[in-house]
Automatic annotation (TrEMBL):
Annotated metabolic or biological route of this protein: Purine metabolism; IMP biosynthesis via de novo pathway; 5-amino-1-(5-phospho-D-ribosyl)imidazole-4-carboxylate from 5-amino-1-(5-phospho-D-ribosyl)imidazole (N5-CAIR route): step 2/2
Presence of keyword Kinase: no
Gene source species: Kitasatospora terrestris
Protein name per the record: N5-carboxyaminoimidazole ribonucleotide mutase
Gene3D superfamilies attached to this UniProt entry: 3.40.50.1970
Length: 174
């Protein structure tokens, strides 16, 4: 089995419906990863052990998602030299603002790259970019991926223009 390069961890298995988009992005680029529940609040010793061992085990980045009082990404960043990408998971109350604020305002010296609320796909893609900085083949895949995005966006514009141009009441082109 290939050793994982990225650790995707979350405060609870209830975060998985949001976090699986990170795994999917890594799958698309064929990046090996591992997935686990690691909670700073509920299992602090295991959380520290995970963070302290991550670099030595060969991981290159950690994606950490948590909701509410989301201390997991910052606490992991404090015990590992690896880049940590934080995903604010939205919960039933406060729409993820609590998670976002808990993750994004880190003190100087302990960076966490925070993505948008529920932005797990971008967390996965950011991890791919980090790896691609040292991997020419992967960088080429990322360039192709970006070209696909461009094609898709261009096509959406073409379709929208065609749809709206056919609608006189909208006053297209005025
Ligand atoms: N924010 C944290 C941490 C942590 O930061 O250590 N551990 C669990 N949690 C969060 O608690 C929420 C509710 O968890 P449960 O669904 O298990 O009650 C989850 O979003 C989890 O990330």
């Amino acid at each position: 089995m290939t050793s994982p390069l990225v650790g995707i961890v979350m405060g609870s298995d209830s975060d998985w419906p949001v976090m699986e988009a990170a795994a999917q992005a890594l799958d698309e680029f064929e990046i090996p990863y591992e997935v686990d529940v690691v909670s700073a609040h509920r299992m602090p010793r295991e959380m520290v052990a995970y963070g302290e061992r991550a670099h030595g085990r060969g991981l290159k980045a950690i994606i950490a998602g948590a909701g509410g009082a989301a201390h997991l990404p910052g606490m992991l960043a404090s015990v590992t030299p690896l880049p940590v990408i934080g995903v604010p998971v939205p919960l039933r109350y406060l729409d993820g603002m609590d998670s976002l604020m808990s993750i994004v305002q880190m003190p100087a010296g302990v960076p966490v790259a925070t993505v948008s609320v529920a932005g797990a796909r971008n967390a996965g893609l950011l991890a791919v970019r980090m790896l691609a900085a040292f991997d020419t083949e992967l960088a080429e895949k990322m360039v192709d991926f970006q070209a696909d995005l461009n094609t898709q966006a261009t096509e959406k514009g073409r379709k929208l223009r065609a749809k709206v141009a056919g609608n006189d009441s909208f006053g297209f082109g005025k």
